[in-house]
Write a structure and sequence with these properties.
Elements: H1 4-15, H2 25-37, H3 51-67, E1 80-85, E2 88-92, E3 98-103, H4 111-124, E4 131-137, E5 143-150, E6 155-156, H5 159-168, E7 172-175, E8 178-181, E9 186-189, E10 196-199, E11 202-205, E12 209-212
Antiparallel strand pairs: 1-2, 2-3, 3-5, 4-5, 6-10, 7-8, 8-9, 9-12, 10-11
Helix pairs in contact: 1-4, 2-4
Length: about 220
């Protein structure tokens, strides 16, 4: 079950509050975006209309990265390309203990929504938490974020086990592999067996897409 401490932090994220006492880069960037642009819930019918805001945020983040030593011209030498999954290009890090994900946030209407999703993932799935290394320019000069995540070895998880785990934590299966948490108004999409790794009896959620939905 979700602990009271995590529940409190989730409520703060949903309200758009600044998260105090968190020192990781993902939370710091999320707080900065909320302070500079506000934090609105996802309204999917407004996805395209928010493209101007997303571009403005991209310019803001690029400038911030360049001024705070978070701009990465190229990945570390020895990074090995593995595959492309959804919105990310995935590399094996030189230490062979992490993967590097270069992500363009294409699934999100704004960069605020994207960083909300990252912070929510890190709260709910700390064993596969994302670390923000910085930002870079992808194809056609599109802004991308560079993330580091533990490299988990194992097999594809059973869909029934994924459903059981998420249901226990308050997520109701809505259709296919999509889930909804009524308490927090959270959508969790695409929880198929390639996004969750099983090792023994433990599930590792390695790729999640969270949306905070507007209250009716």
């Amino acid at each position: 079950m979700i602990s009271d401490e995590i529940r409190r932090k989730l409520q703060n994220i949903i309200r758009g509050d600044v998260l105090e006492g968190q020192e990781d880069h993902c939370t710091a960037i999320r707080n900065l975006l909320c302070q500079s642009f506000g934090s609105d819930p996802t309204v999917k019918r407004e996805f395209e209309s928010r493209s101007v805001l997303k571009e403005e945020q991209a310019r803001f983040l690029k400038s911030y990265a360049e001024n705070n030593r978070l701009w990465i011209p190229a990945l570390a030498e020895g990074s090995q390309y593995l595959t492309r999954g959804g919105e990310s290009e995935i590399y094996l890090a030189p230490d062979h203990r992490h993967v590097i994900k270069v992500n363009d946030a294409v699934y999100y209407a704004t960069w605020t929504e994207y960083f909300n999703s990252l912070v929510i993932h890190n709260l709910l799935f700390p064993s596969t938490a994302y670390e923000l290394s910085g930002f870079t320019a992808c194809k056609d000069s599109v802004l991308c974020v560079v993330l580091r995540q533990p490299f988990i070895e194992g097999g594809q998880a059973n869909l029934a086990n994924i459903k059981e785990h998420l249901t226990f934590n308050g997520f109701r299966n809505t259709k296919r592999q999509d889930y909804f948490n009524e308490e927090f108004g959270l959508i969790l999409e695409d929880m198929h067996d390639e996004n969750v790794i099983s090792r023994g009896d433990v599930l590792f959620f390695i790729d999640t897409v969270f949306y905070i939905m507007e209250k009716e």
